[in-house]
């Protein structure tokens, strides 16, 4: 176990050199570049020192909430290694099962004859769309299902936003996202294998899906930051901007359960949960009156279980009461 923990800790620096991680150094540098015009627009006295202070205000980066994010980055990495490794879903059996199901349903087909680049483009886009849509669906459920919200509330309990807030999540939520990723990959591979046999492969940049790479390159780290960057009304109807995600973290009840999408805004448009940056004024971050007091790592890990149990108990009571009322109504009508 000690060896496992040591290995997990030693992997943390690789987050800055792995294109599949949000804090990959190229993504961080691109965020700095995108923040530069925001600084120029907001400041009259401009200087390199002033820009650094704009990027790294102590009130944000040294806030108690931010320090919790840094600690959770490390603690969750260790917990994931200890708890999730043996029990998380894996891609291979899902891909095989789906491919077999497609063959059973529609019969065997000869691999579709397309140019290699066409197959790569199709599979890369398919993987991205399934990933973004299922990410939206799970995020929607985390907000709308009361007992799941208690775990997701950990992420929203942040009082300030930094790129490390992406790692502010409860292990239960992390486990759900890990299973979702296995389902996404298995589904895409299963469909791809049925259509193209073993000719499928992904167009990537440094090992990351090219669409995900571009999403991260264009300001993903500013989503969790104090820097307000909007894409404008037209683009924000297609892509979620950093400012739109900051609205998602607003403690204003009017902004709760909005902008749930990751990269694409089309899912929010379909469900009526989209808000554009131009529609919102100044915001503050958090969950406001719904804060459960996530003021320590112990509370962050334990309170969601307590509150989730209360939520489930309340739902059961409401269900029983509704059932009794329905029976009473039926008897009265009878």
From TrEMBL:
Pfam families: FA_hydroxylase. The chain crosses the membrane at residues 23-42, 78-99, 119-138, 175-196, 202-219. Its main location: membrane. Signal peptide: none annotated. It comes from the Bacteria. One of its GO terms (molecular function) is iron ion binding. The keyword Thylakoid does not apply. It is found in: Membrane. Residues 125-273 form the Fatty acid hydroxylase domain. One of its GO terms (biological process) is lipid biosynthetic process. This is Fatty acid hydroxylase.
